Amino acid sequence: MTITDTTVLEARLILEQAARERCSFTYTRFARRFTTTEIDMMNADHRARIGPLLDAVAEQTEAEGKGILPVLVVKKQTNRPSKGFFKFAEKCGRNTSNPDRLVLDEQAKVFNAYEAI
Questions:
Q1: Cα distance between the two ends of the chain
Q2: Closest by alpha carbon to 2, among 74, 52, 60?
């Protein structure tokens, strides 16, 4: 899997639809939604590229004031985003001391940003 502008756009479109539907995806379910590239979560190289892909989307949506859209991609075991989300959130000035509160607040921000679209 190569991260291209097309891949970032598709990732963003997938997540924007999820936001409008007020739902989240596991990483595996998110990967299966792609049609322009194959993302195999069993492939370590592909898994390693998911973080930078989500960061690219997050940079766009955060800059637009719509929140950190990749908050909607969560681990099956914890129903929380991976460490990369929290690193990005901290870089953006979010309080990461209560991870559950951060996820709920960020999801609410994202849902609100996309409900009228």
A1: 30
A2: 52
